[in-house]
Amino acid sequence: MEPATGADNVTSVKKTLSPIDKKMYIHSFIGLAIIVIFWFMSPIEPITPVGMKVVGAFLGMVYLWSTVGSLWPSLLGLTGIALSGYAGQGAIGFKSVFLNAFGADTVLLTLFAMVLFGAMDEAGCTKYIARWLLTRKIINGRPYAFMGVVWFTCFVISTLVSPITGLILMWPITLRIMDTMGVKRSDKIWPYFFVGMFAVMTLGQPLFPFTGAQLIVVSAFGNMTGVPADMTPVPYAPYMALNFISTMLLLAVYILVLKFIVRPDISKLKGVDADQLAREQALPPMVWPQVLMMIMIPIYIIMLLVPSFLDRSIPVVSFLATLGPLGVTVAWVVFFCLIRYQGREVLDFKVVAYRQFNWGIFFMIAAAVYGANALSNDATGIKDFLLNALNPILGGQSEMGFVAIMFTVALIITNFANNAAMAVVLMPVILAFCGQMGLDPMPVAMGVTMMVFVAMLTPAASPHAGMMHGRTDVYNTGEIMRLGFPICVVTLVYYIFIGYPLAKLLF
């Protein structure tokens, strides 16, 4: 046999590259090109030379987050910022970037919160929550009550763990129910039921500001506004109230439109029976560690909220304020690691971290929060540049006009790019123009935070949107666009005219 020539090797490599690989390399090249171009460009006044390199590193990172992944682009972006000299020259400045990025309490909170709530899912608690909600007798013979309970269950699972977990758990259950009831893929109610199921998951995803991708946004906002280290980035209670009230109102509107305007045939769902579902979804009795984890959820939330409501001169309140979200989370992790059941830790840290920990989110939070701080720092000149560049568009707007533009931009870009990253990009703009217009930036920023999670129209909108678009046995693209687009528009109108005034009232 003759040895392979160089041309043969090249041909072989080309054959082994799948279209997905080729696309990944193309996007990677574009991301690197963005960084390099800004590195060598002449500064655009009033951006400083260091600011140009920081912008390039951040924009390249955001592009790669949206097209390639989260992990190595985060490391690349931090490396670019470190080499820019933003934190100092040489090895000291380089180390400073990574130490501050990964040493931030937000990043550590992400680590322990993912393990704590991942342990709950690992123990099977989410299955019991879903079973309990789906077997309430209120659903008997009431199709719209049944659908409302299913959608609320999706909301709960999405907020406690993630929309991905919610989909993985709820798809098999709901498909089995539909099959039992004789509901077919061709029935009119089918797409409304399943698209609605996804919509409430993505709307409710950012409910808890101390975990998940939303932590990136609220932490970036807190750092940009100079929130003291002993305070939470945003007030938790008003934030959660804004999301919960808004999601429930939007869900109610969806049900009312379905019942009185669309009016699909729901006769097949009248046979839904809670007792039958209880038998079909039978689970063994809960053991005490599972009960303990269930009890932990409300206690954990109360522990986080207490310092915001009670006088910190009270010893217990002072102690909880000292712990903060990070300390409270670590305390619960230690507690569940300490207690044992059947010879094993209730929370096996290594096992739970292996199965539940999302390294992409972890690295992305470190890079996004640090990068956002760099963008808003006066040393880069980026805030002044944004004011000058966007003033013709945003400067002459009324308060509601400004809010409408920001929310609309957030909705559009989140359906084509990484949602948390897009919110972080918009934060300096919000802060700059709110300062210029004399507005409180908190309601605007929190409204944008909610809007960037309304991500469902394209597979690139979010990981769970990619899952939805990939389930061709449940959804097709036409149905997603036909129903998803009005849902997005109604959500936008709601947040402009109701959500934003509500946020002003709550905050």
Automatic annotation (TrEMBL):
InterPro entries: Cit_transptr-like_dom (IPR004680)
Ribonucleoprotein found in the keyword field: no
Protein keywords: Membrane, Transmembrane, Transmembrane helix, Transport
Assigned GO CC terms: plasma membrane
GO molecular function annotation: transmembrane transporter activity
Domain annotation Citrate transporter-like: ranges: 63-448
Membrane-spanning parts: 24-42, 62-85, 97-119, 144-171, 192-221, 241-262, 291-310, 316-339, 351-372, 392-413, 420-438, 444-462, 483-503
UniProt key word Membrane: yes
Membrane topology field: Multi-pass membrane protein
Matches recorded under Pfam families: CitMHS
Annotated localization: Membrane
Name this polypeptide is given: Di-/tricarboxylate transporter
